[in-house]
Design goal:
Elements (H helix, E strand, L loop, with lengths): L29 H14 L3 H12 L11 H11 L4 H8 L11
Helix pairs in contact: 1-2
C-alpha cells in the first residue's frame, strides 16, 4: 500500500482574517507611551486603538485621523500655505505673549 505524500508546513503565516487581533508585548520608550496615552484620553479611545491607528498611518494604510483622508490633508495644506509663521502660531493657538499684554 502506497503512503500518502506528507504535506510540508508553509513557512509563511496565513493572512490574518479581517478584524482579527493579536495580543503582543512591546517595549516602547516611556515618552512615546505617555504621548499615546494623552491622545487616547483626548479621543476617549482605548490605547490599543490609538497605537493601531499610528501604525496604520505610518505603514501607509488608513489615515491617522478617522474620516480624514489624504485629500483632506491636502486641502488643509493648501488653505494654510500662504500664512506666515506668526499667523500659523495664531492658528495653532500658541500665544507668544501673556493674556492682556500688548504686543
Amino acid at each position: 500500500m502506497a503512503k500518502a505524500p506528507v504535506k510540508k508546513a508553509s513557512k509563511q503565516p496565513a493572512a490574518p482574517k479581517p478584524g482579527a487581533t493579536r495580543r503582543v508585548a512591546l517595549r516602547l520608550p516611556a515618552d512615546l507611551v505617555a504621548q499615546a496615552e494623552t491622545v487616547a484620553r483626548a479621543r476617549r479611545e482605548p490605547l490599543d486603538a490609538v497605537v493601531a491607528g499610528f501604525l496604520r498611518s505610518a505603514l501607509g494604510g488608513a489615515p491617522f485621523f478617522p474620516g480624514m483622508g489624504r485629500e483632506h490633508l491636502a486641502a488643509f495644506q493648501r488653505a494654510f500655505a500662504g500664512l506666515s509663521e506668526e499667523e500659523m502660531l495664531a492658528v495653532d493657538g500658541i500665544l507668544m505673549t501673556e493674556p492682556g499684554q500688548a504686543e
